[in-house]
# Entry
Amino acid sequence: MKIKKGDNVIVTTGKDKGKTGSILETLPKTDQVVIDGVNVATRHQKNKRARSQGQIIEKSMPIHVSNVSLVEGKKPVRVGYKVEKDGDKTKKTRISRASGKAI
# Structure
């Protein structure tokens, strides 16, 4: 997955198209990400103790990683990699395909 936790992304398809947010969690086994404030569902939670009340919680649900794109400025960009060799060591950095800058 080329997108990591903490990245700012924009949703490119689906009901939340155009919304932006930061990634809270990545799920690499299912190729999904959880974005703050996107794909929000309401969940009913039972009371935990005898005298407490249950409540309705809004929770961000996972969205497939192919439906989001990394944001640079205000535009979506594709992510590429640049491999730099320094003697025996190699360093792999993420770059923006549009501008070539490191992310």
In short: Residues 8-76 form a domain with the SH3 type barrels. fold (CATH 2.30.30.30). The chain has a mean pLDDT of 92. The longest strand covers residues 20-27.
